[in-house]
Every structure is written in structure tokens, then in C-alpha cells.
Specification:
Layout (H helix, E strand, L loop, with lengths): L7 H11 L1 H4 L4 E6 L3 E6 L6 E2 L3 E2 L1 H20 L6 E9 L9 E10 L3 E10 L5 E10 L4
Antiparallel strand pairs: 1-2, 2-6, 3-4, 5-8, 6-7, 7-8
Length: 142
């Protein structure tokens, strides 16, 4: 079992400082992060919706990317320059308007230079994922 290098409180503080444009609004919250997996929530707002009343693809991709970053930082510590090198998303079903979106991320492989993980995106309390994501992050030299 991996021991987290950053707590939820430390992750919150780091992300607010380094990415205020994304985290100052308080729309995204980290519910848990343990160095192997994390769960984050984006509170519903009308800006998430695309025409037709479904949660937009860019909203889901951005939340999945944030979830991968959170789980990676929880595993390696505050490495601000870890960056996404690949993100693949499969949209499975419509995200429901009025429902928060949850992102459950887990690391599949953590190496010295690359990390690979997957994210399941969920709408509200439904157990059925609305999207499945795989992502790779590049970790800079220490």
C-alpha cells in the first residue's frame, strides 16, 4: 500500500495557490486522496451544460485531468510541473443536468518519469459511469 505524500488539506492548499483560476471558485472539491486513488467532485452549475442539456465533453475531460493530477500529487508530493502527456476519453452515457459530477481516479502504474491512470466519471448518485478515461502524466526530474 502506498502512503500518500500529500493530505487532502495539503492538496487543496497547493492547488488553490498554483491554480487559482480553476480552484478559487470552490466548485471542485477533493473528497479523498490516498496516494493510489482519489475521489473529487465538481458541483453542478449551468456552465457545465452543452446544448441539449447534457454535461459537456470539455467539462468531463477537464475534471478527469484534475482527478489524475490530484491522485498523482497525492502519490509523489507537490510537483507542480507534472503534466498530462496523453488523455483518452470514452463517453458512455449522458451526464444528467442538476447532478454533481464525481471523478474516481486510480494510478495503474507509477514510474520515475511517467504515471498511467484511469478515471471513472459519475453523474450524481448513479453507479454507472458516464465516461471512462485513461491518462498518462510526465513527471519531471527531481
Amino acid at each position: 500500500m502506498t502512503i500518500a505524500k500529500m493530505s487532502v488539506a495539503e492538496l487543496d492548499a497547493f492547488l488553490l495557490k498554483e491554480f487559482p483560476q480553476a480552484f478559487a471558485s470552490g466548485d471542485i472539491s477533493i473528497e479523498r486522496a490516498d496516494g493510489e486513488s482519489c475521489l473529487i467532485r465538481e458541483r453542478f452549475h449551468d456552465r457545465m451544460l452543452r446544448p441539449g442539456g447534457t454535461v459537456s465533453g470539455p467539462t468531463l475531460m477537464a475534471l478527469a485531468d484534475v482527478a489524475m493530477y490530484v491522485v498523482l500529487l497525492s502519490a509523489i508530493g507537490p510537483v507542480g510541473l507534472a503534466v498530462t502527456t496523453n488523455l483518452n476519453i470514452n463517453f458512455l452515457r449522458k451526464g444528467q443536468p442538476g447532478q454533481d459530477v464525481l471523478a474516481a481516479a486510480k494510478l495503474l502504474k507509477l514510474g520515475k518519469r511517467l504515471a498511467v491512470g484511469e478515471v471513472s466519471l459519475l453523474s450524481g448518485t448513479s453507479p454507472d459511469p458516464i465516461a471512462h478515461v485513461t491518462a498518462t502524466y510526465s513527471i519531471p526530474n527531481a
